[in-house]
Amino acid sequence: MKREVNEASRPRNGADLFVWSLVDAGVDTLFGYPGGAVLPIYDALYRNQAPFKHILSRHEQGSIHAAEGYARVTGKPGVVLATSGPGATNLITGIADAIMDSIPLVIFTGQVAHQVIGTDAFQESDIMGITTPITKYNYQVEKLSDLPRIIKEAFYIASTGRPGPVLIDIPKNISEEISDQEFDSNFYLPGYQPTMKPNPLQIVKLADALSRAKKPVVLTGAGIQFAGASEELRAFVEKYQLPVTSTLLGLGVFPGTDPLFLGMAGMHGTYAANMAHYECDLLINIGARFDDRLTGKLEHFAPNARIAHIDIDPAEIGKNLHTEIPVVADAKEALKALLGANISMPDHKEWKEKLEANKTEFPLWYNRSDELISPQWLIEQVYEASEGKAIVTTDVGQHQMWAAQFYKFDQPNRWVTSGGLGTMGFGFPAAIGAQLGKPEELVVSVVGDAGFQMTLQELAVAKERNLPVKVIIVNNSALGMVRQWQESFYEERYSESLLTVNPDFVKLAESYGVRGVRVEKEEDVPAMLKDIFAYNGPVVVDARVVRKECVNPMVASGKGIHEMIGVTSK
Amino acid sequence: MKRIITATVQDRAGVLNRITGMLYKRQFNIESISVGSSETEGISKMTFVVEVGDHQKLEQLTKQLNKQIDVLKVIDITDKAMVARELALIKVTSTAQVRSEIQGVIAPFRASVIDVSKDSITIQVTGKPDKVEAMITLLRPYGIKELTRTGVTAFLRGQQPTNVTEINSLSI
């Protein structure tokens, strides 16, 4: 975007330069919270009437999770601003979450002035030291003249290659420094040159492996989403009629309702997907990182398969699993190359029939309760009522797994969940960010009663901006997944996992001026959903579900994927 | 297995912290690190001596180093023709009577005495780690009061013969 400088908006100090650098970077939404060290920046936001929104959270964690939600649905970096010290440390969970799930963020923190850095000044914290292990890169601005370059560089690093969070720490004296000079923002990063195009030799190897495979399977991860390669993926698997599985974060990159889709794999994945991984002779991983929740015990993961792995991050290839065919590339480029290769596939009818039989014989299942709402059924109702088109955000835990199992995503960029870090309190603020990124879409935040209480203060933001986010609290008055593990592996010693006191969520919502609804009977659910989805404003639904429901099936911790428990034949 | 890895890095703020932090986080066992400037301004050279369990772990190490934005180049030079040297300063208890005896011990190592006081002498030795190690062993009976080593710094020789593994197996 070309900057239009008039007298009023001309850079006068570092803070003005900051504001206009964000405009140059194409920022349309800034998630932030003011404080001492960023006062000059907030003043510049006020004076310049910057052409982007500032969303005031009610806790910095709310800002950063919202930025993650925004980034996840728009594909653009989420931008965060917080003050020094506690403002900055309140962001840590979100930064760690973003590095685990490769979410592009550009985070700005204020810092005490250069003269007092290192003296334990008021609201000083060593945010560079604290965030170095959890950022893709971080900067402390030393000279004002570096600021425009650093900002440009940060957006580039955050959003290219394997995306991730980049932090810029701005000392107060920098944002206060007066200057009317123009500074060069060109940068050169010789040590950062992500490989986009695959090595043709590896593509030949992969094509050859495919032409010999009798039991191939394609594992899809979020890397496909970042590459925007869903169409190429579809063309590729349809051309060769390959069965497809997905990681938790990859849901939606391949249509969940497609006959070739076997479901999510891993700890709470489908029997069909896990057995496909167990029995396959060629596993093509595209943009996933062989997380332990996916693989189970490594020695039982695809034990007889040749492993091919397409990833833009070379360090992911061979990290957990010996990989015979490494393809360092952007998923889109690699898939294009594979589509260009002419491969004659042997007939794998038998394999496909077997997988098909697994899929129909051992589907995901649950028992319906007579009294309260069955949580899985509730998710199915949400799926029906939203026609499968909603953006769904979650925290971590049982509700997350049920949402992943029973909401079938047919499109990418619709599923916003905390995968790697497994962050309670993520879902609701992420929904706020997602709604801001996609104002026209229906955003449903499926959360647990415990997780919601970690970030519910953001209701004020939903109200303030009239964001029509629909929060559905899957309320079992417990830390459901903790309780489930205690039931299964700790002989029902429910240590600190049952919540005896919960707020009245309806009144709580109402206290923020947000509509609150309680639902306790299944018969009331369809009408309630229809009603709230038509309502133009935020709603909190307190859905009372069966307390002691468990997520099934399961690969227990430390077990192989072929040792699933809770698998029931139809 | 012990490996020597060199990294060429951009001399940006926090780069050493970033790299050592990554090594710690990913549980790599570092025996020594040495860092200093290189022939180009703004570019530093790092030399790591690491103990890794297997080839997979070694590959991870080089990949994780390469992934760092400030890292320009990573080479595992262990199996190549290279020069690897370190420097040690050793303060040994020494009265006037044993001083010449110690001189005799260190002479074959081409080490030198760089400081003398009434009850100690300080010796400087440069060389391959095993040579430094050997000399320290010989000096121990005299009583080592203080010891400091720089860690290995290394790079490739100007010319690479075809088969060099043999040469280096002795040097580290």
Walk me through the structure.
The complex is a heterodimer of chains A (570) and B (172). With 570 residues, chain A is an alpha/beta fold. Chain A has 23 helices and 18 strands. In chain A, strand 13 (391-394), helix 17 (398-406) and strand 14 form a beta-alpha-beta unit. In chain A, helix 11 (230-240) runs parallel beside helix 14 (331-340), helix 12 (271-279) packs antiparallel against helix 15 and helix 16 crosses helix 17. The model of chain A has no long low-confidence stretch (mean pLDDT 96). By secondary structure, chain B is of the alpha+beta class. Chain B folds into two domains: 2-76, 2-Layer Sandwich (Alpha-Beta Plaits); 84-153, Alpha-Beta Plaits (2-Layer Sandwich), CATH 3.30.70. Chain B has five helices and nine strands. In chain B, strands 5, 6, 7, 8 and 9 form a five-stranded antiparallel beta sheet that branches. The A-B interface holds A 128-129, 132-133, 136-140, 142, 157, 189-192, 313-315, 318-319, 322 and B 9-10, 13-14, 17-18, 21-22, 25, 56, 59-60, 63-64, 66-72.
Keywords:
heterodimer; A: 570 residues; alpha/beta; Rossmann fold; 3 domains; 6-stranded parallel beta sheet; 18 strands; 37% helix; 15% strand; globular; B: 172 residues; alpha+beta; Alpha-Beta Plaits; 2 domains; 5-stranded antiparallel beta sheet; 4-stranded antiparallel beta sheet; 5 helices; elongated
